[in-house]
Design brief:
By secondary structure, the chain is an alpha/beta fold. The protein is built from 16 helices and five strands.
Length: 352
């Protein structure tokens, strides 16, 4: 039996998709990659995490397994890679396995890859162990996590694991208790603004303070989202309140609520156009879209529609698996439009 392993870790493909969505031409690098910090000292915010990890770098032999928990775009993956680099130096890549679980369909594949990786027992000077970085591990089913726990035990002599998760509570207790837990928080406004300023200067992009503040407002301490929005706004010219508003929509939340209203009113085509605009022009991620849709649904007249709730859960699940967002979200809106029509029809009937 293969136990499914899910992950929403961004693949190469989705990075490219994001680039084209943002109108960034393909030889122009995504800023999130171009400006990803390479050393712990280059990381913004997360002071507590960084200082605990700097202590580990000094005595790597004592490093336990690590669990990085916190919201998206706060530096979990970045910091894991910085740590590997600082512990192992130049050849860190040879000793670090970054598991992109979205390509690893089953826990058996994960086990196989880790086993092969851990069995290169060539121990070099200054390389205390190998590191397996398992991103977004809270998206794994609990059966897969049980299997993972055994893999961690079997390979613990040669290998340290760094797991990342949005919520540590989604990680089974036996794994949590084997890891040192590091909590990541959303980045503070001053840090995000300062980081964006640096990038504007390096890229020769003009900006004003209101523009950068607006980016922070719209992205709430998610640095990946902030950088993507900055890059999208820069394709329109200077970074100002106007250009950011254009790409961000005043508030992603309210825009998504409007899209849902349109769908429920039966205006599927218009709802779909707006959805595509939000994703492709504003650079909203499909995960944010479905998250906001869920919030809007809770506040709408359809909050107790079982069908609507199921449709939301299904779209969320498929997006996590890496399905094409345009197709999945279009199907989602079509379902909502159908629910809206049926509810209108039954209201008319009652009136008669
Ligand atoms: N604390 C941070 N300091 C500097 N840049 C950051 C930080 N957090 C995120 N970033 C930027 O956002 C991008 C995504 O960060 P990442 O580490 O992949 O986030 P996570 O794994 O928490 O979702 C990075 O490439 C980097 O450019
Ligand atoms: Mg990550």
């Amino acid at each position: 039996m293969t136990i499914p392993v899910l992950s929403s870790r961004k693949s190469e493909r989705s990075v490219q998709r994001e680039a084209s969505r943002l109108n960034v031409n393909s030889d122009q690098q995504m800023w999130v990659e171009k400006y990803r910090p390479q050393k712990l000292s280059e990381v913004f915010d997360q002071e507590q995490v960084v200082s605990r990890l700097q202590a580990i770098v000094k005595r790597p032999n004592e490093m336990p397994h690590l669990l990085f928990a916190g919201p998206p775009g706060t530096g979990k993956t970045t910091i894991a890679l910085c740590l590997a680099r600082e512990i192992m130096g130049e050849s860190w890549r040879d000793y670090t396995l970054e598991l992109n679980a979205s390509n690893e369909r089953g826990i058996d594949t994960v086990r196989e890859r880790i086993k092969n990786f851990a069995s290169y027992a060539d121990r070099r000077e200054g390389i205390p162990f190998r590191i397996v970085l398992l991103d977004e591990s809270d998206a794994m089913t609990s059966d897969a996590q049980q299997a993972l726990r055994r893999i961690m035990e079997e390979s613990s002599r040669t290998t340290r694991f760094i797991l990342t998760a949005n919520y540590s509570s989604n990680i089974i207790e036996p794994i949590q208790s084997r890891c040192a837990i590091f909590r990541f928080s959303r980045l503070a406004e001053s840090d995000v603004v300062q980081y964006l300023e640096q990038i504007c200067k390096k890229e020769g992009v003009k900006f004003d303070d209101q523009g950068l503040e607006k980016i922070y407002e719209a992205t709430e301490g998610d640095m990946r989202h902030a950088l993507n929005m900055l890059q999208a706004a820069s394709t329109l010219g200077d970074i100002s309140s106007e250009s950011v508003t254009k790409v961000a929509g005043l508030s992603g939340r309210s825009k998504v609520a409007e899209v849902l209203d349109m769908a429920f009113e039966g205006d599927f085509a218009e709802a779909r156009n707006k959805m595509i605009e939000l994703l492709q022009v504003s650079g909203m991620s499909e995960h944010d879209f479905i998250k906001f849709a869920n919030e809007a649904l809770t506040r709408s007249d359809y909050s107790s529609s079982i069908e609507a709730i199921q449709a939301t859960a299904e779209a969320d699940y498929r997006l996590l698996q890496g399905s094409n967002p345009d197709i999945q979200l279009s199907a989602y809106l079509a379902t909502l439009a159908k629910i809206g029509k049926e509810s209108q029809a039954s209201k008319m009937k009652k009136k008669e």
